[in-house]
Write a structure and sequence with these properties.
The protein is α/β, with parallel strands linked by helices and 438 residues long. It has a 5-stranded parallel beta sheet with strand order 2-1-3-4-5, sandwiched between helices. Strands 14-15-16-18-17 form a 5-stranded mixed beta barrel. It has a 3-stranded parallel beta sheet with strand order 6-9-10. Strand 9, helix 9 and strand 10 form a beta-alpha-beta unit. Helix 13 packs parallel to helix 14. The longest helix is centred in the C-terminal third of the chain and has 24 residues.
Length: 438
């Protein structure tokens, strides 16, 4: 086979897990497309399939294994090469490789840059194709994620990320600006900053926190309209950052703050760095002095040793804090984490009962908050047209894609996909706002 013959091959990919993982895949796809491969949306039509895996917790690992097995079956019918990338390889290594007999290559995360050369070798071709910076977007074209750091140093007792991704490593400032400008030229209007902890950005490279500096420079890119911040750890949210969010018109009035719990004993066992008092003071500060900022968070229920009293305290906190949006997880017992060896593991059926109770409390809180927004005039980024429901779907600046609330518009309204438009919120039901373009 020649290089030109190889370039006729079609490549498809499945990305599992978080948005940081998605960014890794998009960079690989850019280099594959730049080499000459055609990137296809449907893996069933492809000669080469990449499964970009997640293995953060047991359900993610199960999903990754199930997806690979499904793709192995597809390979028996049509696909020529099956490649597995992402966190599953880094977490389980040789163990996972022995499990799958029809996978042609397992790619370590650090070798993502060599994806083209790896495929060349699979087809017995010699070559050394240089890696180029760029992104092939796999979500809607008007928003993109900018991964500003990888890995983590926080050492939470339940978390596998440090073992999978290594120590916290910031991306160079200038390279991030260059990538953001490229994305803006591709039509991206909303840039979502992501890392395991974006609030520590720059501390490893520059010996000081550079997040606010980065936000200011990104704001100078004219074609970018919204900048959103994901995964800001509570102990490193500063007044300087809050002031920047408040005063910078391009920064969405939105913070994703993973809190995980409110009880001091649980927080200590989790190896979290914030106390109950710290968390309550932070939320109170934002609610009082920065009321325009919407807060999203995540919590873990059923952590080892969590008593009924400690769980009740979490429910009481949810009722009083009135966070705008919350995701809940039942604790997942993960090997090689500190929490794995803890005594008083909570039974699964109790975890699930607590999960439903927490979700029910938060649903009431969010419903009341959202009802109060009816009548407000807001900016809405129009994401897509829903052909089944015959409505346009968008989001306000206080709602992140795929995880938060949506705004729907009647198809007869003058709506432009990919544009930010002024709208009045005229209703709310079943987790959806109804909007009217002004």
């Amino acid at each position: 086979m020649t290089f030109d013959e190889l370039k006729t091959k079609k490549v498809g990919a499945i990305s599992l897990g978080c948005d940081k993982n998605r960014v890794d895949l998009e960079k690989m796809l850019f280099n594959l497309k730049n080499f000459g491969f055609k990137i296809c949306a449907e893996v069933e039509d492809c000669d080469i399939i990449i499964v970009n895996t997640c293995a953060f917790i047991a359900p993610a690992t199960t999903e990754a294994i199930s997806t690979i097995l499904e793709m192995e079956e597809l390979k028996q019918i049509k696909c020529e090469k099956l490649i597995v990338t992402g966190c599953l390889n880094n977490r389980y290594g040789i163990e996972v490789q022995h499990f799958f007999k029809n996978v042609d290559a397992f790619v370590d995360i650090k070798d993502n840059k060599n994806i083209v050369n790896i495929i060349l070798r699979l087809y017995n071709l010699q070559g050394n194709v240089d890696y180029k910076n760029g992104r092939f977007l796999t979500n809607l074209p008007h928003y993109a994620y900018l991964k500003i750091a990888d890995g983590c140093d926080n050492g939470c007792a339940y978390c596998t990320i440090p073992r999978i991704r290594g120590r916290y490593k910031s991306e160079p400032f200038d390279e991030l600006l260059k990538e953001a400008k490229q994305l803006a030229e591709q039509g991206v209007k909303e840039l979502i900053l992501v890392a395991q902890d974006i609030t520590r950005y720059g501390t490893d490279l520059y010996n000081s926190n550079k997040l606010v500096d980065l936000i200011k420079e990104l704001s100078k890119i004219k074609k970018l309209k919204w900048i959103r911040l994901h995964y800001c750890y509570p102990e490193t949210i500063t007044e300087e950052l809050l002031q920047e969010i408040k005063n910078n018109p391009k920064v969405c009035k939105y913070l994703d703050i993973p809190l995980q719990h409110i009880d001091n004993k649980i927080l200590k066992d989790m190896n979290r760095r914030s106390s109950e008092e710290d968390i309550r003071n932070l939320i109170q500060n934002i609610k009082t002095n920065y009321p325009e900022i919407a807060i999203r968070s995540t919590f873990i229920v059923g952590f080892p040793g969590e008593t009924g009293k400690q769980f009740k305290k979490l429910l009481e906190f949810l009722e009083s804090a009135k966070l705008n949006n919350v995701g809940f997880f039942t604790y997942s017992k993960e090997e090689k984490t500190k929490a794995y060896f803890m005594k008083k593991q909570v039974p699964n059926f109790i975890k699930n009962i607590r999960l439903k109770k927490a979700q029910k409390i938060q649903e009431k809180v969010m419903h009341a908050l959202n009802i109060n927004q009816i009548g407000n005039t807001v900016d809405v980024l129009i994401d897509f047209y829903d052909e089944q429901e015959h409505v346009f779907v968008g989001r306000t600046a206080q709602n992140s894609p795929e995880v938060d609330f949506l705004v729907i518009f009647d198809e007869k309204q003058q709506v432009q996909i990919g544009e930010i438009q002024k709208a009045k919120l005229i209703g709310y039901y079943e987790g959806l706002f109804k909007g009217e373009i002004i």
